[in-house]
Amino acid sequence: MSNDYSRDPDDLYGETIVAKIEIAIRKNGAMSVAGNIEDLQWALAMLDAAKDSVRNYHDRNAMQKPGGLIIPARDTGIKIQ
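Predicted structure:
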């Protein structure tokens, strides 16, 4: 018997989407923004987090490409404790 709810009492709703911003660009260059944009600070924080996610995605992919430069910590003067 399967349940449609999370088994973790601290996370009853799991991956439920609570806010969403959609950015669309059309062929003619027009842009539209839709979604939870009523609260300016909240909307800008969501966009900043999205920008960080895109940057992190590309940083990880850059490290996996052949020919990428990886410098060991022992060669940088960084002390790991």
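Summary: The helical segments are 40-64.
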